[in-house]
Design brief:
The chain is mainly β. The chain folds into 4 domains: 181 residues, Galactose-binding domain-like (Jelly Rolls); 117 residues, Immunoglobulin-like (Sandwich); 173 residues, Sandwich (Jelly Rolls), CATH 2.60.120; 81 residues, Immunoglobulin-like, CATH 2.60.40.3080. 3% of the residues lie in helices and 43% in strands. The chain contains 4 helices and 40 strands. It is globular, with a radius of gyration of 28 Å.
């Protein structure tokens, strides 16, 4: 699984030095109190962890949830503290988890500011009201301060890390005993992580601090087959930029890049702002240009960055982005790391993803199987589901504004394929399951896909299985129709832009034989056997547009490209990744196809 990005992080990167600090190296400090103030028998308290990537495999470490990176505080690997509300599951009443410091001497400090690195994920109780910092001078009477403004159950997750700066002078200035307490009131939430706490006698707000917020992910899916991705032009690049620092920033460069997984830039564009004033929040910046992803199988990244004439005091929030993948046969909206969701109203429901085929290919493809994951309300081996492959009718506009239908079987859709799922004995929660797709009319394997068409691949849970939670990852926000749900009606936004359903589709070449063969002289393969380099000698009397496909003998695509105006040409392909065996080279034109076998010998 490719990580989202390896971002820079920082600890006390401010203009000031803290007069008191705690980075939890070695554990929760002696003398601190750690308790759950609820009446529940099961207590939910803060725990210590020094491996942010461990998840629940290490005692005391919090879970790492779908689409979320491990905690990104600067000193997370020497220790941080956390409340894992999810691990406690549903409780009779809300837990009230409190971590309280020993007395801190703030005498002689006319101003007191507190800052820390933190991350929270909520589901039932808003973080804005449920997760607070409390300050006291006697460990009895407390003043409450907001830590996560705007982080509601709809938003779900804070930044990772969030670095609030809170002025507690009204309570703590010139006091000889000051207590800090982090209190979380919640029930079956996700996690709250905390690290790198500092107290300052001057405002520690960074002087120079540009911040990138949400960004537009222009790929229609996180993963697309190489045969289909080429016409998914990335034509919209934009992100939100803020300046919470103390000074205006000059010559602010906002850049987007498409990189290989080794960091090589294969596309870049940028825009320069002459200045960005102090206090600007979430200014929408559009970057000109477009990118046609004619890419071989592999992993890639879309990366946004911001810089200015000044050196940023907190560079960890200057870069955002997400990977995408060109695959041999797979469509997917996610890259694993799941959490389970279902509609709150109960009843039968369905969930699925919108996938598109390319209009440019001269070859034909079939959908062969669906993959999906779930978390059962009971035993995972008891779940049943029906899979539908539905073609969106051509008169439905690009934004689905004229889409009709309150039920799953909408008049805006044609059912062209299906599959029946009965959980096997090996089924488990969040384990991907595979179902063969059958043609709806002939009930034979494989469903023909039209070029340039849109499809919903849906998983339907009914009856006793309607309580099943489907698996979602929060990999990236899709600001267009992508993952959808159906319960009392169609919800074309699903559960929200960042909720990407684990509903995947495999495709392959429709046939590996030539129903309408081109002349034998149209393509020659040499050398044969092949070691690393394959040459295709093509021969046409007139300039001819063609699709060239390298595949295995089952029709799974390894590499594909569209070529224009071929006549007498030699096309060369480097294939060092192929294991020994037999493969197919195929050329498709408007007049027909020609497929030749070749052998790889290592």
């Amino acid at each position: 699984m490719l990580p989202v990005l390896a971002l820079l992080t920082s600890g006390f990167l401010t203009a000031q030095t803290p007069f008191w600090s705690q980075d939890f190296a070695g554990g929760i400090p002696a003398g601190w109190t750690n308790a759950d103030g609820s009446t529940n028998t099961k207590k939910v308290v803060w725990t210590w962890c020094n491996d942010p990537e461990a998840g629940n495999t290490v005692a005391g470490c919090p879970g790492v949830f779908g689409g979320q990176d491990p905690f990104q505080s600067f000193t997370a690997t020497n220790g941080f503290v956390s409340v894992d509300s999810d691990e406690a599951q549903q409780l009779p009443t809300n837990h009230v988890s409190r971590l309280t410091t020993t007395a801190i001497d703030c005498s002689g400090k006319n101003n007191v500011f507190v800052s820390f690195a933190t991350q929270i994920g909520v589901y039932a109780v808003s973080a804005e009201t449920g997760a607070i910092l409390r300050v006291s001078t006697d460990n009895a009477t407390w003043t409450n301060y907001t830590v996560f403004p705007g982080v509601s159950t709809t938003v779900g997750w804070s930044k990772n890390p969030e670095t609030p700066i809170i002025n507690i002078s009204a309570t703590a200035a010139n006091k000889a005993t000051v207590y800090l307490q982090w209190e979380w009131t919640g029930n079956y939430e996700y996690i709250w992580n905390l690290d790198d706490v500092g107290l300052y006698d001057e405002d520690p707000t960074p002087v120079h601090n540009l911040v990138l917020g949400d960004f537009f992910f222009p790929a229609s899916s996180l993963a697309q087959p190489a045969s289909q991705i080429a016409t998914d032009t990335f034509g919209s690049f934009f992100t939100y930029v803020s300046n919470p620092g103390l000074m205006d920033e000059n010559n602010v460069v906002v850049k987007v890049a498409v990189n290989t997984d080794t960091g090589e830039e294969i596309y870049t564009s940028s825009v320069t702002l002459p200045s960005l004033a102090v206090g600007v929040v979430d200014s929408l910046i559009e970057i000109p240009g477009s990118f046609a992803p004619e890419l071989p199988v592999g992993a890639y990244e879309i990366v946004y960055s911001v810089s200015s004439d000044s050196t940023d005091d907190r560079p960890f929030d200057n870069v955002v982005g997400n990977p995408f993948f060109s695959t041999s046969s797979l469509y997917s909206k996610e890259n694993g790391g799941y959490a389970g969701y279902r509609p709150s109203g109960g009843g039968d429901w369905a969930v699925g993803n919108l996938y598109r085929t390319t209009a440019g290919s001269l070859d034909n493809y079939v959908a062969t199987s669906a993959q999906f994951a779930y978390a059962a309300d009971g035993e995972p081996t008891d779940v049943e589901a029906t899979i539908y492959l539905m073609r969106v009718k051509d008169d439905i506009d690009a934004g689905f504004s004229n889409f009709e239908g309150a039920e799953l079987l909408s008049p805006s859709l044609d059912i062209i394929g299906f599959g029946a799922y009965q959980a096997p004995d090996t089924a488990d929660n969040y384990l991907l399951q595979s179902v063969e797709l059958l043609d709806f009319l002939t009930q034979t394997s494989g469903v023909a896909l039209d070029p340039g068409a849109r499809y919903f691949l849906m998983v339907s849970y009914t009856g006793a299985s309607a309580t099943t939670y489907h698996a979602f990852a929060l990999d990236v926000k899709m600001f267009f129709v992508s993952t959808v749900t159906v319960s009392d009606q169609w919800y074309l936004g699903g559960f929200g832009e960042e909720f990407n359903a684990a509903v995947r589709m495999d495709i392959s070449l429709m046939v590996t034989t030539d129903n309408k063969p081109l002349p034998e002289t149209s393509m020659m393969v040499f050398p044969n056997p092949v070691r690393n380099t394959l040459n295709l000698g093509v021969n046409f009397d007139q300039p001819t547009d063609a699709t060239i496909t390298i595949a295995d003998v089952t029709g799974r695509v390894i590499q594909v490209e569209d070529r224009q105006a071929l006549t007498k040409d030699v096309l060369t392909y480097q294939l060092p990744q192929l294991a020994s065996g037999t493969y197919l080279a195929r050329i498709a034109t408007a007049e027909g196809t020609l497929t030749r076998k070749f052998v790889v010998q290592k």
